[in-house]
Amino acid sequence: MASRFHSPRRRDLLALAGAMTIVGTPALSQAVWPGKPVRFVVAFPPGGLADVLMRLLVPQLSEALGQPVIIDNRSGASGNVAAVEVARNGSDSRTFLVNVTTLESVNPLMFERMPIQPAKDLQHVALLANTQLFLVTRPTLAADTLAEFVAYAKANPGKLSYGSAGNGTTPHVGGELFKQAAGITAAHIPYRGAAPAIQSVMAGQVDYALVPGTVFPSVKAGKLKLLAVASRRRPSYAADVSTIEEAGFGKVYVDTPFAVYAPAAMPAAHVMRMNRELNRLLAQPVIKARFAEVGAEPMTLSPAELTAMVGEEAALFGPIVRTQGIKAD
Predict the structure, then answer these.
(1) Is the pLDDT of residue 188 over 90?
(2) Domain range for residue 53?
(3) Has this prediction a pTM greater than 0.85?
(4) Which residues contact 260 (CB under 8 A, 6 or more apart)?
(5) pLDDT by residue (tens digit) across 102-113?
């Protein structure tokens, strides 16, 4: 009797254990991810804004994931170099990309041959931060408001020049958009990055530029004049700066969003885990304050919301890139 009584129970327990193992395996797999160091390929050199922002998150992100977070800087070709690295060599499900969204909205139009198809080979994970661009002029320019600047430009057709961080960059596309909206003319002078363009405006070698909020100390020091922000809204950390639209010169929206991407084949569970961890950090007041110090604003978006935002950017930038014939260097 004892044998007949205990055998079915033993079998039931073994079957139950097996079922628990089968059902529990996916959850266990998700719990241990990433299991090894996580790599973020940043499409800008060390010290660039995206690099600085990402490194601010590394300590807490590493703690949350239980693994080291490695920054791999790979700049070049307007973000294409880093994108190729992630798309082609990121099959370990622990490799992510930090890049500007013009990788999708501008690069396919600007490059005759794209090494990858961003919409096909990559997927959205999160928005690291949005950075606004500010219209600044050389300090000696005879204009103290945007209206005065536009009037000066119209009175001196063909005499002004503006600098940008390079062909096809957001400051370049924004510069062309502003010229069109304001009805002015100015020669475009491309530089290799925002820093030399800013230096040229301060030195009076070019008349104006659209630049990130890192110029605020130079504005306060009287080395630059700040006239407006090229965005839908005023910056939270400089609410007294009006938008170009508020000044009456059209919808010049040229924010520079830094997005986080993953290879297209990365499992959705890993993508959403990274989205949650990044958004949790970006919502912290201390992170918001640190980002504001360098002219950036963290934003917590879902992958779907980021996809929609990039679509709006493409609809805005696409016509300008086409009509102005903007091409890569």
Answers:
(1) yes
(2) 37-131+256-324
(3) no
(4) 40, 96, 97, 98, 124, 125, 126, 127, 128, 274, 278
(5) 999 999 999 999
